[in-house]
Amino acid sequence: MEFMAQANKRFGVRTLLVQGLTLLNVLTSAFMIWKGLSLFTNSESPVVVVLSGSMEPAYHRGDILFLHNGYSPIDVGEVVVYKVKDKPIPIVHRVLKVHTETETGRQYLLTKGDNNPIDDRGLYSRGQLWIDRSEIIGRVKGFVPYAGMGTIWMNDYPQLKTALLASLCVLSLFSNE
Amino acid sequence: MYNFVQRLSGVTSFAMTTLMALVVVISLTTPLIPSAPTQTLTLLNVHTTTGRKMDVHDVDSKNAEYARLTFDLDADLTSMFNWNTKLLYAFVTVDYLTDDFSTNTVVIWDRLVKSKKQAKLKLRKHHNKYLLRNFARTFEGVSGANMTLHVNPVPYLGIMYDTPLDSIGVVIPRAVKPVENS
């Protein structure tokens, strides 16, 4: 309370409120852009960071991938991000086989990582032989190297995340305009 | 007038904006760089066999028919390397039609071409690297099969796209001792 009273005397209530509003504005617009992009690409997460080395040398850990899911059927040779039912982590691999049923349009897909010797059937759910179109989060359309290294570091060292957030809050409160 | 932090923030924000603009320009222009890859794909033989357990996850695999292709491939992909090409993913597909499926496409061979030195592909009497098997257990009712070489450039930065080259027709026979399709 002592701190609040002092801050009030020094900056005034209005300045503090405006600072708070600016912060909220930044947060909400970032969220809006993310959700808009998600709607446009028909993908639950249109930008992902590569977390494993199974697609080396094409993609390394920490590279950023831009996804576009769309509604069209998947083709062979495309790199897709998929998430099977029981496994929480999305996987970035290349499509090796495609079978499309004429009547229902249902697609049966088989994937494989470039750096893996065998296909992904061991990574799917128990007894699952094919990936369904609905399990695809998106196909990789764009690629920027190294840009996601920050995410990797923050995943590896969670203290970094808290430190970053705290310093951001402090900075935003003590900067004028 | 300006303190150090304000100058730093100005410089970094300008640098970020310039970098972003550069990323967009590079991404959009790279696919426009012309290239002239040449290739000839020759199919020498197709032999269909059955009776081996090929896939530990698939209980059907022992009774399924597998086609073993023998092919020659000559391709010169050197011209597809430009300053923004990290590697080329070259792959051969077989696609065909069946009664129930409108698309059946299977990658039977692939290679990551990492430099210009490796860009001249020369395969002689090569067999498929990956198994060629129908979704059903046999090749019954398979028609209009084609074999195609595709090249997928992976850029250092930018957009991914696919380049299918010419395709040739393939006939996939049934196994000599066919399994019942039940």
Please provide a written account of the structure:
- The complex is a heterodimer of chains A (177) and B (182).
- Chain A contains 4 helices and 7 strands.
- Chain A is of the alpha+beta class and 177 residues long.
- In chain A, β4 and β5 form a beta hairpin.
- In chain A, α3 crosses α4 (158-174).
- The longest helix of chain A is centred in the N-terminal third of the chain and has 29 residues, at 13-41.
- Chain B is mainly beta.
- Chain B has 2 domains: 1-32; 34-170, Immunoglobulin-like, CATH 2.60.40.
- Chain B contains 1 helix and 8 strands, in the order αββββββββ.
- Chain B has one helix at residues 4-29; strands at 38-50, 65-76, 85-97, 101-113, 120-127, 143-155, 158-159, 163-170.
- In chain B, the strands form 2 sheets. A 4-stranded antiparallel beta sheet of chain B has the order 4-3-6-8, with no helix packed on it.
- The mean pLDDT of chain B is 87.
- The interface between A and B is medium-sized, with 30 and 32 residues.
- Chain A: InterPro entries: LexA/Signal_pep-like_sf, Pept_S26A_signal_pept_1_CS, Peptidase_S24_S26A/B/C, Peptidase_S26, Peptidase_S26B.
- Chain A: It comes from Coemansia interrupta.
- Chain A: The chain crosses the membrane at residues 12-34.
- Chain A: It is found in: Endoplasmic reticulum membrane.
CATH architecture of the largest domain in chain A: Ribbon
Range of strand content of chain B: over 45%
- Largest interface, C-beta within 8 A: A-B, 30 and 32 residues
Name of the CATH homologous superfamily of the largest domain in chain A? Umud Fragment, subunit A
Question: How would you name the oligomeric state of the polypeptide chains in this document?
Answer: heterodimer
In the predicted model, the low-confidence regions of chain B spanning at least 5 consecutive residues are: none
Percentage of residues in strands of chain A:
15-25%
What structural class do the secondary elements of chain B suggest? mainly beta
How is the biggest beta sheet of chain A arranged?
7 strands, antiparallel
Average the pLDDT over all residues of chain A and give the rounded result: 87
If you compute it from the alpha carbons, what radius of gyration of chain A comes out, rounded to the nearest whole angstrom? Answer: 22 Å
